[in-house]
Write a structure and sequence with these properties.
Layout (H helix, E strand, L loop, with lengths): L1 H31 L2 H11 L3 H19 L3 H19 L2 H11 L3 H8 L5 H4 L2 H15 L4 H14 L4 H17 L3 H14 L6 H11 L3
Helix pairs in contact: 3-4, 5-6, 5-8, 6-8, 8-9, 9-10, 10-11, 11-12
């Protein structure tokens, strides 16, 4: 009798567990339902704040799950909400473009950046800075006038890392030198040197200074 009642209790508990999981799955699929549409829209079409709305919605589900006693599910949803917050501050398309650029794959980087059709609504101010920075670096190989335009905008909007700002100003100095704007090039080179705290651009700065003497 003891074993029989125990097995019945276990069966009942397991059945309740399965039902609860079904409800959770139903809620989760309901949440995921709009995502295929978002894929079609992609990052160029929807506002960056949607990521914060999704993060808040997922966090709400996490709180509900914890209150209901499903701690594991709650933790999972909290981690999921943190991904949306991370992608708000670090845009996924810009990250992918950076990875392509590190491998010298300019076409691949351009492909990811071209998906961002409206940077002002899709990106934060700093992300817009990096959007222009990446385009400026790529165009510096082929079209220095366009590259200068993008790099100046990147500097104006601001970049998170001083090293990136130093690279932008070094490239602008090179463009100014090519266009024989020696004073502007010297100013930009001095600023780049100050920003280059770890001396990673020391050789390039020295080389450019030597070339500037010939102007």
């Amino acid at each position: 009798m003891f074993f029989e009642s125990s097995s019945q209790n276990c069966g009942q508990i397991y059945e309740e567990f399965l039902l609860s999981q079904t409800e959770i799955s139903k809620y989760f699929y309901l949440f995921l339902l709009p995502l295929p549409r978002l894929k079609k829209l992609n990052n160029s079409m929807y506002n960056k704040n949607i990521k914060l709305v999704l993060a808040a919605a997922v966090l709400g589900v996490a709180v509900w799950q914890i209150i209901e006693g499903y701690i594991g599910n709650g933790i999972m949803f909290i981690l999921l909400s943190l991904i949306f917050v991370f992608l708000y501050f670090k845009n996924e398309l810009i990250l992918l473009a950076f990875l392509r650029l590190r491998k010298q794959d300019f076409e691949g980087a351009k492909k990811w950046l071209s998906k961002i059709k409206n940077p002002e609504s899709a990106l934060t101010i700093k992300q817009q800075g990096y959007y222009n920075y990446l385009f400026g670096i790529m165009l510096s190989q082929t079209n220095i006038t366009q590259a200068e335009k993008y790099l100046k905008k990147a500097v104006k909007l601001g970049l998170s890392m001083n090293q990136d700002l130093a690279v932008a100003k070094l490239n602008l100095a090179g463009i100014a030198m090519t266009k024989r704007r020696k004073r502007e090039a010297q100013t930009l080179l001095t600023e780049a040197k100050k920003l280059d705290k770890h001396g990673m651009l020391k050789d390039q700065i020295t080389m450019m200074k030597q070339q500037m003497k010939k102007i």
